[in-house]
């Protein structure tokens, strides 16, 4: 009969078993971490450059000698979380059916949970004409000037005569009138709320090409000249709203002001139509028609504030019927609202 092991042998056995157990727990932890937390972590990339290994892009303001303020850090790899993946599949199916039925030629969607960052995109790299969506960076340029020029928002400007060469397809009744004075703040509201092109022209004259170009450059975007008609994607455009929400370019007061102005947008056939009445939405729509074809573009982008937190939605469409494209945007808005609120 073998002799029972002594105390020293028993202790060695226990130590060995404990080491094996700890190693197993550590390995299991690594596996859980790898598959449960699959969002890449931000890295220190160069300004407005994408890190190929991690799919992360940083946008920095620039223009300083010793600092380089971070405006936003965007993860360009979509979320792999189950509810978000299911939502993406539903959106793709809906968009494919819509295109097959001839209701649109292309539809692009960008969605992001603004609290913890998971996002999804469908055709998110497709380029469109932003049209009136560019009124948002114009507003941001005015508010940026107002930070260093107290009283600018109360400055009065005379509207002498129409100068806009583009006719608007979706008109509001609250357009500015020739011969009247308007404060800069009033023009901001009219430019956003009513999508008033003449208010936009007066504000653009106020800021000038250099200031507008500086804002676009600071935010890491490129607006080409007349050569390109379609040059902005839903993913590109969403950065304006993320930067406003995070107050990383304008100060807190002006960022709050900008989103408050956007919450007054008088367009109810897109994102607004897909959520419950009374929901606060800071958004801007854009439309583009052509005299030499029946092609139409209709877009709606903004932040939707829910009891479960805010999310960002940007939808751009190209088709032949503004009304039908508005319905498509509303349907997508409804799908995302239901998925987001039920998941929360």
Describe this structure in words.
It is built from 8 helices and 10 strands. Helix 3 packs antiparallel against helix 7 (252-262) and helix 4 (184-193) packs across helix 5 (197-218). The chain has helices spanning 7-36, 82-100, 135-148, 184-193, 197-218, 234-246, 252-262, 322-343; strands at 50-51, 56-60, 70-75, 106-113, 119-122, 156-158, 181-183, 280-289, 296-306, 309-319. It has a single domain, classed as DD-peptidase/beta-lactamase superfamily (Beta-lactamase). The strands form 3 sheets. A 5-stranded antiparallel β-sheet has the order 5-4-10-9-8, with helices on both faces. Strands 1-2-3 form a 3-stranded antiparallel β-sheet. A two-stranded antiparallel ribbon has the order 6-7. It is α+β, with helices and mostly antiparallel strands.
Largest sheet: 5 strands, antiparallel
CATH topology: Beta-lactamase
The SSE order reads: HEEEHEEHEEHHHHEEEH
Low-confidence stretches: 1-54
Which tags fit this structure?
344 residues; alpha+beta; Beta-lactamase; five-stranded antiparallel β-sheet; 10 strands; 41% helix
């Amino acid at each position: 009969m073998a002799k029972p092991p002594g105390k020293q042998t028993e202790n060695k056995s226990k130590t060995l078993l404990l080491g094996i157990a700890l190693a197993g727990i550590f390995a299991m932890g690594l596996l859980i971490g790898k598959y449960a937390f699959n969002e890449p972590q931000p890295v220190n990339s160069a300004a407005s450059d994408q890190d190929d290994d991690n799919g992360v892009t940083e946008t920095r303001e620039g223009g300083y000698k010793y600092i380089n303020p971070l405006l936003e850090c965007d993860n360009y790899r979509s979320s792999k979380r189950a509810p978000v993946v299911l939502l993406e599949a539903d959106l793709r199916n809906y968009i494919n059916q819509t295109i097959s039925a001839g209701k649109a030629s292309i539809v692009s969607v960008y969605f992001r949970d603004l609290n913890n960052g998971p996002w999804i995109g469908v055709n998110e790299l497709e380029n469109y004409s932003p049209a009136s969506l560019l009124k948002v960076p114009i507003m941001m340029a005015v508010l940026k000037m107002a930070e260093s020029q107290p009283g600018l928002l109360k400055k009065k400007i005379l509207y002498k005569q129409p100068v806009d060469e583009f006719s608007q397809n979706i008109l509001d009744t609250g357009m500015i009138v020739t011969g009247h004075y308007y404060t800069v703040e009033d023009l901001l509201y009219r430019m956003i709320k009513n999508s008033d092109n003449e208010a936009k022209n007066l504000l653009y004259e106020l800021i000038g090409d250099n200031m507008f170009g500086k804002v676009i450059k600071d935010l890491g975007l490129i607006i080409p000249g007349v050569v390109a008609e379609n040059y902005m994607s839903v993913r590109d455009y969403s950065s304006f709203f993320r930067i406003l929400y995070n107050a990383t370019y304008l100060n807190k007061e002006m960022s709050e002001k900008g989103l408050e102005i956007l919450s007054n947008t008088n367009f109810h056939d897109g994102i607004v139509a897909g959520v419950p009445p009374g929901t606060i939405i800071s958004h801007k729509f854009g439309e583009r028609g052509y005299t030499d074809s029946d092609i139409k573009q209709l877009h709606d982008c903004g932040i939707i504030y829910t009891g479960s937190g805010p999310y960002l939605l940007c939808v751009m469409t190209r088709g032949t019927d503004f009304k039908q494209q508005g319905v498509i945007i509303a349907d997508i808005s409804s799908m995302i609202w239901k998925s987001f609120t039920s998941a929360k």
